[in-house]
Write a structure and sequence with these properties.
By secondary structure, this protein is α/β, with parallel strands linked by helices. The protein has helices spanning about 5-15, 45-50, 60-75, 95-110, 150-160, 170-185, 195-200, 210-220, 230, 245-275, and strands spanning about 30-35, 40, 90-95, 115-120, 130-140, 145-150, 165-170, 190-195. It contains 10 helices and 8 strands.
């Protein structure tokens, strides 16, 4: 599916993206493996825009980009997914702190790479009532758990974060700063930041968030629509309403974050190595 022009892109992707689509420039060229229809979606400029730009300074570059996007789209074959993934089904919610701690310790002993994600009651940890509400950990991209930040799960998480094994995140300075504040030590051996890698691979504005990268690289529609208002700051100190979110909803959201971060890191590494996107 090749939607051409802002109206076509807005009409096709708007209901799935569920936010303002914004300028078409941030969508052109992505080969979106859209899960809902199991179809490739490759947005492009409208041909009339290419014609209007012919006599402008950037006209030749725009035309080359337009033709390149068409060529990339026509080179695709088959459906993007043999089996359309259901990532939410891959997240295990664990309410018992001892059970979560046992899982974490077993995976540290087994070794491997981990993606981690926190949900907190404010943006920055510098206030007395700042707290981590829950955490999620994805191990090897295969198993993901999400659990409340209580009891022995806290100490077990600290051991994992201090371990030698590679860690993946998105905007890693957030988790690192909260870890230093709450556990008294940094995260050891960060190896990948999906946000920084998105900047490195494509310098267009507005494309580096986990949700955007998940949409264009995995065809995964946003999973935070119903709780996003609760996570937005309500005052100048960054306090939010995370404690009003039902715990199961919050844990599923948090688990999706770490699982998707791991999946994105795999795709970004692949693109950096061979110069090809999905």
């Amino acid at each position: 599916i090749i939607p051409m022009g802002a109206v076509a892109v807005r009409s096709l992707l708007g209901p799935l993206w569920r936010e303002d689509v914004g300028p078409i420039g941030q969508w052109v060229g992505w080969k979106i493996p859209l899960q809902r229809w199991n179809a490739w979606v490759v947005p492009n400029y409208h041909p009339s825009y290419i014609r209007r730009a012919e006599n402008q300074k950037e006209g030749p570059a725009i035309k080359l980009w337009f033709e390149h996007v068409l060529s990339e789209a026509f080179a695709l074959s088959g459906r993007p997914w043999q089996t359309v993934p259901r990532y939410e089904d891959d997240v295990t919610v664990i309410y018992n702190a001892d059970e979560a701690a046992d899982w974490l310790r077993s995976k540290v002993e087994a070794g491997g790479s981990f993606a981690i994600d926190y949900e907190t009651n404010r943006l920055k940890p510098d206030y007395k009532n700042a707290c981590i509400v829950c955490c999620s950990v994805c191990w090897h991209g295969l198993y993901t758990i999400a659990y409340p930040w209580v009891g022995d799960a806290i100490a077990a998480t600290g051991k994992l974060l201090q371990s030698k094994w590679p860690k993946i995140g998105a905007n890693n300075k957030f988790e690192d700063r909260w870890t230093r504040r709450m556990l008294g030590h940094p995260v050891r051996n960060w190896v990948w930041d999906t946000m920084l890698s998105a900047h490195h691979l494509d310098n267009r504005p507005g494309i580096t968030s986990v949700k955007y990268q998940a949409f264009v690289r995995l065809g995964q529609e946003p999973w935070d629509t119903h709780i996003k208002p609760m996570l937005q700051s309500t005052d100048e100190r960054g306090l939010n309403r995370v404690n009003e979110i039902p715990m199961r909803d919050l844990l599923l959201y948090c688990g999706m974050d770490s699982l998707i971060e791991y999946k994105l890191a795999e795709l970004q590494k692949k693109e950096m190595m061979n110069g090809k996107g999905n």
